[in-house]
Design a protein that fits this description.
The protein is built from four helices and two strands; from the N terminus they run H-H-H-H-E-E. It has 112 residues and is mainly alpha-helical. Helix 3 crosses helix 4.
């Protein structure tokens, strides 16, 4: 026969493990929530026309960069794209001091 009191003790331990006291785990309470239109706070204040102008400028700058990089990789457009992505990549985390997450590694071979 199972003792109901012993079952309650196991439930309390499980409950304590799932919901530790606030003295052990800090908690953050939200007072106000605001839905953001964009992840970039600088774009939030811009009008739609300004955002479109910024995007067209970014496309133009990207095309100019690819054209410039193509000169360094002997006119290869695919290599220029990959090299641009490599230059823009950045490490956002490291695992076990060996693996860098976020870095886009490029190895260009057979270039004179």
């Amino acid at each position: 026969r199972i003792d109901p009191a012993s079952c309650d003790e196991g439930m309390e331990e499980e409950e304590a493990a799932r919901f530790p006291p606030s003295s052990l785990v800090p908690r953050l309470h939200c007072v106000k929530v605001r839905v953001c239109q964009n992840i970039n706070p600088l774009l939030h204040s811009m009008s739609l026309q300004d955002q479109q102008g910024l995007l067209s400028q970014a496309e133009q700058v990207r095309e100019e960069l690819v054209t410039l990089i193509r000169g360094f990789v002997l006119g290869d457009p695919l290599a220029a794209e990959y090299l641009l992505l490599h230059l823009l990549s950045q490490v956002y985390a490291r695992r076990d001091d060996v693996m860098a997450l976020g870095k886009f590694t490029v190895n260009l071979t057979k270039c004179p």
